[in-house]
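Below is one such protein, fold included:
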Amino acid sequence: MLESGFFQLLHNLQYKSFYSCLI
Protein backbone atom coordinates (compact mmCIF):
# COMPACT_ATOMS: atom_id res chain seq x y z
CA MET A 1 0.00 0.00 0.00
CA LEU A 2 2.85 2.37 0.84
CA GLU A 3 4.58 1.55 -2.44
CA SER A 4 1.44 2.50 -4.34
CA GLY A 5 1.36 5.89 -2.62
CA PHE A 6 5.04 6.41 -3.41
CA PHE A 7 4.50 5.66 -7.08
CA GLN A 8 1.51 8.00 -7.10
CA LEU A 9 3.66 10.78 -5.65
CA LEU A 10 6.37 10.09 -8.22
CA HIS A 11 3.82 10.32 -11.02
CA ASN A 12 2.53 13.58 -9.57
CA LEU A 13 6.03 15.05 -9.52
CA GLN A 14 6.67 13.95 -13.10
CA TYR A 15 3.36 15.48 -14.15
CA LYS A 16 4.27 18.79 -12.51
CA SER A 17 7.71 18.76 -14.14
CA PHE A 18 6.11 18.05 -17.50
CA TYR A 19 3.71 20.96 -17.02
CA SER A 20 6.58 23.25 -16.00
CA CYS A 21 8.45 22.35 -19.18
CA LEU A 22 5.36 23.07 -21.27
CA ILE A 23 4.79 26.49 -19.74
